[in-house]
Design a protein that fits this description.
Number of helices: 6
Oligomer: single chain
Helix content: 55-70%
Distance between the termini: 45 Å
Strand content: under 5%
Order of helices and strands: HHHHHH
Largest sheet: none
């Protein structure tokens, strides 16, 4: 009986470890997908445009949105880790807003013009993921 309990405990521990590794791989896959789609956005967009919304009118931005809400913490972390800058940081802010349905301007009457302003307001107003 003692051996059976030990075996069950070991199996549960191994399952827990593999699930944690799977989540890490999933986040890495999401980050890779985001990075690749952002790269493609840069290639298909008119880089002389100063309107960031011009960068969201393509299939690659839609691919980021199709990743769903699980992409939000990855985008936040990528921004926090300085993996996104310039127009790509701004695009990430737009994607977070689109993915969560939390439009800071509409909900709180707060305007933002840079990714830094967005992520600060996002954190300060605890917009987070809405169900």
């Amino acid at each position: 009986m003692k051996k059976i309990i030990i075996c069950i405990f070991c199996i549960l521990c191994l399952c827990g470890c593999s699930n944690n590794k799977q989540n890490t791989n999933n986040e890495e896959n999401i980050e890779e997908a985001i990075t690749e789609n952002l790269k493609q956005i840069g290639e298909v967009s008119d880089t002389t445009s100063s309107n960031p919304y011009d960068y969201t009118n393509n299939e690659y931005y839609k691919n980021i949105i199709k990743l769903g809400k699980k992409a939000v913490p990855v985008l936040e972390e990528m921004y926090k880790d300085n993996k996104l800058s310039g127009v790509y940081a701004y695009i990430s802010a737009l994607a977070v807003q689109d993915l969560t349905g939390c439009n800071i301007y509409e909900e709180y009457d707060l305007d933002w013009s840079t990714a830094e302003e967005f992520y600060t307001l996002w954190k300060d107003y605890n917009c987070g993921l809405k169900n």
